[in-house]
Amino acid sequence: MITPKKQFCIASSKCMVAGYDKKTKIVKFYFARFDSVDSYGRIPSKTAFNRTIKNNAKKWSWLREHTNNDVIGKVLEAGTDGKGAWVRAQILDTSAGRDASILYDEGVYIYHSFGYYIIASHFDTINGKQVEVVDEAKVVEVSTVLDPANLNATIISLNKSQVEVLTPDASPAPVTGSPDDKDMTSKDKEDIINFIKEF
Which CATH number, 1.10.357, 3.10.490, 1.20.1280, 3.20.16, labels domain 6-175? Predict the structure, then answer.
């Protein structure tokens, strides 16, 4: 099934930052997990990000709360492992970057998310519930967020500092306002068509 619409999917997990190197300001974190269904009822397959990582990972924006003009830094590399998809990114000297540096240092920023287009997906039953399995996605940005929809993507390291991963006490709150066709302008739809042609 081809699903040509822009979606924002949040996949994150609470963890305690054990250290932060203010000199290099490099953060490595998961933005998606392969073992967890998000509150939109979606889960990525283990190969969903292979092509987007190979073709355009260094072009991804690293944003604050999915806000285009709040750039925290730049993506240095991306990859996947048995748990999920991750990025290694460097905080830049922007206003959002300076704020993020403080908030990472203080343990306020612990959740991450990503914005993407679904290129292909199918429906399956997992634990008795119907979910949308994203077979292929094109990631356009990763974000640091305060309010996750899925508590399963962790900060892996802050400049190789050790991180203690904590188990969340509560279930994630549902996130409202998921983008839908009715929210899209004709230019949005045209951009999606062009983008899929180029993919």
Answer: 3.20.16
